[in-house]
Amino acid sequence: xxxxxxxxxxxxxxxxxxxxxxxxxxxxxxxxxxxxxxxxxxxxxxxxxxxxxxxxxxxxxxxxxxxxxxxxxxxxxxxxxxxxxxxxxxxxxxxxxxxxxxxxxxxxxxxxxxxxxxxxxxxxxxxxxxxxxxxxxxxxxxxxxxxxxxxxxxxxxxxxxxxxxxxxxxxxxxxxxxxxxxxxxxxxxxxxxxxxxxxxxxxxxxxxxxxxxxxxxxxxxxxxxxxxxxxxxxxxxxxxxxxxxxxxxxxxxxxxxxxxxxxxxxxxxxxxxxxxxxxxxxxxxxxxxxxxxxxxxxxxxxxxxxxxxxxxxxxxxxxxxxxxxxxxxxxxxxxxxxxxxxxxxxxxxxxxxxxxxxxxxxxxxxxxx
Length: 369
Hints:
The protein is an all-alpha fold. 60% of the residues lie in helices and 1% in strands. The chain contains 18 helices and 2 strands. A two-stranded antiparallel ribbon has the order 1-2. Helix 8 (206-226) packs across helix 10 (250-261) and helix 13 crosses helix 18 (350-364).
């Protein structure tokens, strides 16, 4: 549960996301005639959003100036701009709840328009660019030339070692790639500008990495029989990572991350597919195994994941910490939710998982990474 409280999913730091918006974009005040018609609640919602947007622009500009001037950045330099982005989305949802007429056009990131003003997309792109700089892999990180194929192949062989059939192993490979996109947007060996704990291609903490490594050692003999070539690659990567944190070797980071949290559920894939036929829902469920493992396991054991309800305030808090039921007063007021409602509320993951799904199928048809 500690991970659920503190976890800072690197991929969620950016909503998949050209230069800063021109002055006033996304924050243009209503015409005076319209303002005069607003209720007190509506006027307050407008003011709150305008302030949040101004603060977001200011912290983005400040961090950009610091980076361009090569100044020393504050501890956890991404935290302030992350919180500012949350505030913008939260106040916008409150604004559109109070003034539905402010709901605008669809945006490029698949976020429900009531939560996000498409006019501020340039700000989000700058936000993503700053995180890419702040979370760049360290110089000693050991990259792979085939990072996505590695993820798929490791997911498959782990599933087979856990007793999954061939079809389920394919699903495990696709889900593993989805987790890579969920955690880092498909970027290997990155750091984390909001956390000193979670690092690498699957954003694991040190204890999780060690636990996954021990679990891998326990099934290594089975892996060697199932796929000698992959086992030999693993031996090579172990030697490469001998003197560094294994989270900064893409292969070992993914291997250990999958073994830590997800491997034991690969054998459950047939039941999961039956309960949740939609591939994106399956990906979301495995992300929830990472975010809120204990209740998700209970939901699986219930035999009806979609209807399983969570009402523990701590668990709801863990979800909010991962951008689920986070934005706007109405969502934050929820005291319980079924897994169906939780899966539907994970819309910030949709675009990432669609990318992972497309990449998986492209690789399966011979595309080069």
